[in-house]
Amino acid sequence: MKLRLLPACLALLLAAPALQAADPLAAGKAAFQRCANCHQVGPGARSNFGPQLNGILGRRAGSAPDFDYSPALRKAGFVWNDKNLAAFLRDPDAVVPGNKMRFWGLRSERQIAELLAYLRAHPAPPAGAR
After folding, report:
1. What's the pTM value of the predicted model, to 2 decimals?
2. Coiled coil where (predicted)?
């Protein structure tokens, strides 16, 4: 009897990546769970151990007003875009040496793309809406 269940279980396991690909925001939300220990997104997000990430794409590095960034990140001198944020997610110390984020990086390009899609879905609130 157990052997009859094996093909069904294998089919579900093999379908899991396809199900994630069908909903990149859900997959990005799942990937964000690694970030959620330090960062927040969405309505009511605020900086805590790490800066809140609403509107990170298009924001100047080290500029969220309610977070005390490392000197290295305050002096980074760039605006976050898909390319440099993806590189930072792969290896934070290579992009901004001396930053204080303790994260070993993501290795999966698919997971990075899903995480970027999820972050893109959380724009900065309109001025005065905080």
Report:
1. 0.78
2. none
Task: With a cut of 90, say whether residue 3 has pLDDT above it.
Answer: no
Provide the residue type at 86 as one letter: A
Nearest to 130 by CA among 24, 20, 32, 44: 44
pLDDT of 84 > 90? The answer is: yes
User: What span, in angstroms and rounded, lies between the C-alpha atoms of 72 and 83?
Assistant: 19
E strand segments, the chain: none
Give the whole-angstrom CA distance, residue 12 versus residue 91.
Answer: 33
Distance CA 113, CA 34 (A): 15
pLDDT in tens, 27-53: 999 999 999 999 999 999 999 999 999
- The secondary element (H helix, E strand) that includes residue 87 is helix 82-90
Closest by CA to 32, choosing from 112, 127, 124, is 112
